[in-house]
Amino acid sequence: MTIKFFQPPVAPGTPCLSPFCAKLDMLLQLSELDFERHVQGDPREGPKQKVPFIEDAGERLGDSNFIAEYLREQHGFDSQRHLNATDRAMGNMVISTVEEKLYWVLVYGRWRKPENAAIMKSIFFGHMPDDAMRKEISDGAEQMINNTLYGQGIGRHTEEEVVAIGCQIIDDLSTLLGDSACFFSNTPTLIDASVIGSLVNFAYGPAQSPVAEHIRQKPNLVQYMDRLAQQYFPNLEKQAA
Fold first, then answer.
1. 0.70 exceeded by the pTM?
2. Rounded to whole angstroms, how far apart are CA atoms 19 and 200?
3. How many angstroms separate the CA atoms of 79 and 75, rounded?
4. Which residues form a coiled coil (predicted)?
5. How far apart are CA 206 and CA 184, in angstroms?
6. Among 52, 75, 98, which residue terminates a domain?
């Protein structure tokens, strides 16, 4: 039976604007299970009211990490099966750092800088024909996201402080990767899907930031990112530096 994978609309030449959707897309490709992509513009349709989510055998499941565990339990696919316990633990720490810390650096850069917020609002709401309604809804969404950033904590920092947080994580990822083909492995795993989902959103995404430029200063990360992006997301178009 084919797994249905639900994600938001994806603009041509760009990754899904959710790193978690890009991560799950890559993971499903790694699994070699039959799956098909579906556009879902309303995250409330998902079991956790967010994207991505999947539907398999009539059951819907949300959250990329829970989905990865589901694939292991129900389909026998474990991308990390060859890793030892230490590398698995280190990989879990990498995933947590990327998804619970670097992610918020990405969101901050997209919505706290006015020029980037304008780009994001155009992407999400530019299709609305009524100017007044489009402005009201997009401004409301921007305020909601900024409130979320403040509540999460990262919105209380200056831009310079947030950039420093992001660049430190990029430095650490570069150090951990070293000359390896993938993190803790010669072949891609869930860890790489998580990292790539984030890196491509910085480097290939519509809103540029100093963190994206910092990534470009890390030859091993650039080579790693471009190689896997070309393999799993061949239609991406890198933004100009």
1. yes
2. 8
3. 12
4. none
5. 30
6. 75
